[in-house]
Specification:
Shape: elongated
CATH architecture of the largest domain: 3-Layer(aba) Sandwich
Distance between the termini: 91 Å
Structural class: alpha/beta
Strand content: 5-15%
CATH class of the largest domain: Alpha Beta
Number of strands: 22
Number of helices: 22
CATH topology of the largest domain: Rossmann fold
Radius of gyration: 34 Å
CATH superfamily of the largest domain: NAD(P)-binding Rossmann-like Domain
Helix content: 40-55%
């Protein structure tokens, strides 16, 4: 019967006006008690009519204070620290009003406004006690009977016993479906260990999770509720949670809360990207701004993962105009809609161009019309297996497209040309990587011509988290479908960066470059793809080999086991930024490079793909195919 009554009441919220009326009644009632206490219950010396009128008068300015402080607007069953402070604020304001009145009321002929200050102070403490006691009693009652509710609850612990953690707990308790029971807090502050927050015990993370999943609490989820938690610490806690086979949630940043309020639905599962992030990179924003401000900037491949993020970040540095170029119409339209909403004022600076970097005539028209002073060249085909099957397109876009944009940059006096390259260009084992390496060689060769005023800068980094076609989105789709998760080799590893991180470093390298450099970024530690897949399965709440399986498919054509950022003959030079290095490479003779590019242009039109790749390998001896149909060419070239 009690449980049924609880369930009925759980779906109903008492009107705030009812709460206000009840609060005013408590004030009225407490004044009578205060008078009795003041006069030691000597009823004969108390005039009932006067006390009644005084009670009504005091209740009137308490009512005014409640309306000002809005102390009656909270949901009583979820009363927390914020609600208690509102009640305290209202009662203290009322005490202040009553005290002021008491100084001037004894010269009047109206006994009902002649308020005793001692009675007012007694009344203040009684009222405050009863207002808070009633609220917390109702909260405790709902919590007690909620434990017996038939709705299955999720036992969670909150990592963070500070203000954000308390707000998170209150938000979970307000969930109408009663899905959560907070069984403990975890915190890194030893001063909080073995104490309680709102009756909930606080433990250290390591002590609580040292033996895996705590049995006494039947733990199902850990919610991270710490602002600006260091990425390394977040990774450590997540690793322990995964080891204990519990889900991990995270409270979103305060600025993203809906109407400034947190709800249980806003708590999201930790993403694998969150566990791969490193400490945020500190950039020289002034240096970037000086290089971009009041400039006309062209971004090729603007609809792609890297190009679109470069566009977003450029808008913060006040260019006079940004030309966003891509051949993909729909993604370019989607980016237009996004930036229109995100940057309504700066959006007018953007010019949208649908075009192909391999179209010489169209690109010449573009340069004549806009005359950019800075270029970020991100247009490229990047998928290794796809380009291994389509070598003509890889060379046409990645090499010849880069040549067209670079030549036009020189012709039209562009100040800087920043090329986005890849770690797959280092000792390439596939057509895509070789095409990017040849593009690097071409733009670098301009540095050997003293009459060229354009500064050509190359940036080289590894896999980008969440970019189109990267391993993480692929794994997510496979997990959503119930598996299997496919991995090419159990030992394969890759370097990872976030999209904003990679683009930040591209902008920084572009600002500091003087021409001819290949900038290499600190990618941190390489990640074993098998470990990545296992973590993603655990983060999805599934169990490896029980709910979902991993299958090994073998290395794809042109795929490496381990990526490299530097070739064997390359060393690095430090820059003012600790995470950006300059690869020391030999700049090839400009005339030799130009002659080879002419040969490649003729080869694309007249030779079969084997002859095309053979010619590419002859110019790039470091290009040795791996697990590819073009591997047979390596032995003939070596001979």
């Amino acid at each position: 019967m009690i449980i049924e009554l609880y369930s009925w009441l759980s779906n109903r919220i008492v009107s705030k006006w009812v709460v206000l009326a009840l609060d005013v009644f408590i004030v009225f009632f407490c004044y009578h008690i205060a008078v009795l206490l003041r006069f030691n219950f000597e009823i004969g010396s108390i005039l009932p009519k006067v006390i009644f009128l005084q009670s009504a008068f005091v209740a009137s300015f308490y009512l005014l204070s409640f309306l000002i402080a809005r102390s009656y607007t909270g949901i009583v069953r979820h009363t927390g620290l914020y609600d208690a402070l509102k009640v305290l604020q209202a009662t203290m304001l009322s005490l202040f009003i009553g005290t002021i009145i008491s100084f001037f009321s004894f010269d009047t002929n109206a006994a009902w406004i002649e308020l005793s200050r001692s009675v007012l102070f007694i009344h203040f403490f009684l009222t405050l006690f009863f207002l808070l006691a009633l609220r917390f009693a109702i909260k405790a009652t709902f919590r007690y009977f909620g434990k017996g509710n038939k709705i299955e609850a999720t036992n969670v612990v909150i990592y963070g016993a500070g203000t954000l953690g308390i707000i998170t707990q209150n938000s979970l308790l307000k969930d109408n479906a009663r899905k959560y029971v907070v069984v403990a807090y975890l915190d890194d502050n030893p001063a909080k260990w073995n104490k309680q927050v709102d009756g909930i015990p606080v433990y250290s993370v390591e002590a609580y999770l040292k033996n895996g999943k705590p049995k006494k609490h039947n733990l199902q989820e850990i919610i991270i509720a710490i602002k600006d938690l260091h990425p390394q610490r977040r990774k450590e806690v997540a690793e322990m949670a995964l080891e204990a086979e519990v889900r991990i949630g995270v409270v979103p940043p305060v600025h993203s809360w809906i109407q400034g309020s947190l709800t249980g639905k806003q708590i999201k599962n930790v993403r694998i990207e969150d566990l791969l992030e490193r400490e945020s990179i500190k950039l020289d924003s002034l240096n970037i701004k000086r290089s971009v401000q009041n400039k006309i900037v062209l971004v090729t491949g603007a609809a792609g993962s890297i190009g679109s993020e470069i566009a977003r970040q450029l808008l913060h540095y006040e260019p006079v105009e940004i030309i966003l170029l891509d051949q993909a119409e729909s993604p370019l339209f989607d980016l237009d809609m996004e930036l229109r909403n995100q940057f309504p004022k700066q959006h007018t600076k953007i010019k949208w161009v649908v075009g192909d970097v391999t179209n010489q005539q169209r690109m010449t028209q573009l340069f004549k019309r806009y005359r950019p002073s800075m270029i970020y060249h991100a247009a490229a085909y990047k998928h290794v297996p796809m380009m291994e099957e389509n070598p003509y397109e890889a060379i046409q876009t990645n090499v010849m497209g880069t040549k067209i944009i670079a030549d036009l940059a020189v012709e039209f006096g562009v100040k800087k040309f920043v090329m986005v390259s890849t770690d797959k260009a280092v000792n390439p084992t596939n057509v895509m990587g070789a095409s990017k390496r040849l593009a690097e060689v071409y733009v670098q060769s301009f540095a050997s011509e003293p009459m060229v005023g354009t500064q050509f800068i190359t940036t080289r980094f590894g896999n980008v988290l969440g970019s189109n076609g990267s391993v993480i989105p692929v794994f997510k789709k496979q997990i959503e479908k119930g598996g299997p998760v496919t991995i090419t080799h159990p030992d394969i590893t890759r370097y990872f960066m976030t999209i904003p991180e990679a683009c930040n470093l591209v902008l920084e390298a572009g600002a500091m470059g003087n021409g001819g450099e290949i900038f290499v970024f600190d990618m941190g530690e390489s990640v074993k793809i098998l470990d990545l897949a296992k973590k993603m399965i655990s983060l999805s709440g599934l169990r490896l080999n029980k709910d979902i399986e991993i299958q090994f498919t073998g290395l794809r054509p042109g795929e490496k086991l381990f990526e490299e950022l530097l070739a064997n003959e390359e060393n690095t030079l430090a820059t003012h930024h600790p995470q950006i290095l300059i690869a020391k490479t030999n700049i090839q003779n400009r005339h030799k490079v130009k002659m080879f590019m002419l040969e490649m242009e003729r080869s694309i039109d007249g030779e079969n793909e084997y002859m095309l790749i053979r010619r590419l390998k002859s110019f790039l001896p470091e290009f040795v195919s791996n697990n590819s149909r073009f591997s047979t060419l390596d032995s003939t070239i070596q001979e």
